[in-house]
Amino acid sequence: MVARPVLHPSSVVCTMIKFVRSSYMPQCGLFQLVSRSFFTSQPASTLQSAYEAASDSDRNDDEYANVNWDELGFRFMPTDYMYSMKCSLGDEFSQGKLNRYGNIELSPSAGVLNYGQGLFEGLKAHRSKGCDLLLFRPEENARRMQIGAERLCMPSPSVDQFVHAVKQTVLANKRWVPPPGKGSLYVRPLLLGSGTVLGLAPAPEYVFLVYAAPVGNYFKEGLSPINLLVEEESHRATPGGTGGVKTIANYAPVLKAQIQAKKKGFTDVLFLDSVNNKYLEEVSSCNIFLLKDGVISTPLTHGTILEGITRASIIEIARDLGYQVEERLVSVEDVIDADEVFCTGTAVVVAPVNSITYKGQRYHYNVGAAAVSTMLYNSLTSIQMGLVEDKKGWTVHIE
Ligand code: COI
């Protein structure tokens, strides 16, 4: 494969990249000479340096990486390239580039290591049946990172820079994007306070990184319904805190409850609000919905619950399908009484809940082919995988 940038003469505002390659595409069933173009608004110099790095002599041009695609779980697997871009406090990000995937160097005194000044994002690239690479609403991840960065006093990439970085990372790691229907390439953007601090203050320097790994189902149950335990002692977030943004610091505190629940055979933990210990917040890695008498409800996000992009998409899809969807305070009694419960998230997609255990009592829910959650899962993933027309303009074609 030859992937070589051909720079448009005007080169600064509008850069055209043209890929010409000859390869066997099993899903398309033929050898093809593919010639595709796309435009970006990135300065030519940024793109050029990115591609220079990506054109290393050790570049592997196989159509697919040597992976057993049928056994993908949600585990880290190093891929070929990662994207990085730096910025000083008070400046703007510029000059990002692709490098071979590898370890990064950080001072022990880096802000992220000492005071947790860090954010992450998660989004997926799917390979469609026509072998296009599709991203799902990447601008929403970019905006969410900007909101989080504002909360943690960090500079953030622009939406265009973020999306550009994600596209470059996926393209450079294309051979790691699973075949259609076998999974996705999970893309993990990070924004880290990399500069040194000793007293508590924003770091003087920041790094924006994007790496990726091929993934399958998030839960070990695969697509089978999961079993949740309501956590009654610890809480994930507090009013005025950072539960609503995707800071790295929101995740380690759930591990203790999660590990204890897993030891008892549960899949994951459902957190309640920290004031009343009564209203549902979210599961460690995803948002939660319930269905009762044909009405769908999900906890209102009011600063303590992550504004999930899958959550927002499912609300919209369900409303389009004619369901009433309420964003409101949802009590633990409401969920006990529900007909169906399901979780949503980028990694999780739409996961049906088989049971919730609260105060030692296990409550069961409707699951299976006829469940509303199954229909929502199918509707969402059909868009994400390019199986149906994307009337909402949610998918971004990389090629
Ligand atoms: C995602 O769903 O992308 C997340 O970031 C959750 C993470 C715990 C895997």
TrEMBL record:
Q: EC annotation?
A: 2.6.1.42
What top-tier enzyme class does this entry carry?
transferase
The UniProt entry, under Gene3D superfamilies, shows: 3.30.470.10, D-amino Acid Aminotransferase, subunit A, domain 2 (3.20.10.10)
From the UniProt record, list the reaction(s) this protein catalyses.
L-leucine + 2-oxoglutarate = 4-methyl-2-oxopentanoate + L-glutamate; L-isoleucine + 2-oxoglutarate = (S)-3-methyl-2-oxopentanoate + L-glutamate; L-valine + 2-oxoglutarate = 3-methyl-2-oxobutanoate + L-glutamate
**GO terms for CC?**
cytoplasm
Task: Please give the superkingdom of this protein's source.
Answer: Eukaryota
Identify residues that carry N6-(pyridoxal phosphate)lysine: K246
- Supply the CDD domains for this chain: BCAT_beta_family
Record GO terms (molecular function)? L-isoleucine-2-oxoglutarate transaminase activity; L-leucine-2-oxoglutarate transaminase activity; L-valine-2-oxoglutarate transaminase activity
Keywords, A to Z, come to: Amino-acid biosynthesis, Aminotransferase, Branched-chain amino acid biosynthesis, Pyridoxal phosphate, Transferase
Q: Which GO terms describe its biological process?
A: amino acid biosynthetic process; branched-chain amino acid biosynthetic process
CC cofactor? pyridoxal 5'-phosphate
| Similarity comment | Belongs to the class-IV pyridoxal-phosphate-dependent aminotransferase family.
Query: What name is this protein filed under?
Result: Branched-chain-amino-acid aminotransferase
Lineage, broadest ranks: Eukaryota, Viridiplantae, Streptophyta, Embryophyta, Tracheophyta
